[in-house]
Amino acid sequence: MRWFSRSLLMVAALFVAGSASATTIPVGAIVTNTTGGTTSFSITFPNNPGTPILETVAALIQGSVATTLTDNNGDGATLTADVFYSAVIDNVEVKQLLSPINIAVGAFASDAVFENFGPEPINPPIQGPGFAQVVIEFTLSAGDTAAFSGVFNVVPEPSTVILFGSGLAGLIAMGHRRRA
């Protein structure tokens, strides 16, 4: 029976350690508005259908974003958005940050804002496998620069990993009993 306890613990530990890795989407860009007027921008990370999430059940999410606005031309700068950072899984928005946002700075000045969230469960749960993305949308005044960086993490739900690992350990134990 001792071998069974050790086998169960080793299999469960290996399975949890090997399967509970997070999907991480790095977010970062520097945008300078080179047009003659205020312009709207929309940037999607990654710029493909998304990063596959390998789990088939709901997960935990966490993320952060930092934004800096800089006036380059001496007439002040503004950055605005109703929804600035949207964390998206399978085209469903699961979280917003810095929403709404309204940053204004004076001549040749800059200002920064930061916000984070999680870890927290996805609500309502989303069935996988799925794709994760971050969408950044904002309006920037002419001649000015916005820089931002952040991350969006999707973490597998631990209870599902443990349940699957326990089932696998049970199958291994049954195999050992048949040999004995």
Describe this protein's structure:
- This protein has 180 residues and is an alpha+beta fold.
- It has one domain: Jelly Rolls.
- It is built from two helices and eleven strands.
- It has helices at 2-19, 158-179; strands at 23-32, 39-45, 51-53, 59-70, 77-81, 85-89, 92-97, 101-105, 110-121, 130-140, 145-156.
- The strands form two sheets. Strands 2, 3, 5, 6, 7, 8 and 10 form a seven-stranded antiparallel β-sheet that branches.
- Strand 6 and strand 7 form a beta hairpin.
- The longest helix has 22 residues, at 158-179.
Fill in the keyword field for this structure.
about 180 residues, Jelly Rolls, seven-stranded antiparallel sheet, four-stranded antiparallel sheet, alpha+beta, disordered N terminus, 11 strands, 2 helices
Mean pLDDT metric: 78
Q: Quaternary state, please?
A: single chain
CATH architecture label: Sandwich
Shape: elongated
* Terminus-to-terminus distance: 12 Å
- SS strand fraction: over 45%
Unreliable sequence segments: 1-19
Structural class based on helices, strands and sheet pairing:
alpha+beta
By CATH reckoning, the class would read: Mainly Beta
Secondary structure elements and their pairing?
Elements: H1 2-19, E1 23-32, E2 39-45, E3 51-53, E4 59-70, E5 77-81, E6 85-89, E7 92-97, E8 101-105, E9 110-121, E10 130-140, E11 145-156, H2 158-179
Antiparallel strand pairs: 1-11, 2-10, 3-10, 4-9, 4-11, 5-8, 5-10, 6-7, 6-10
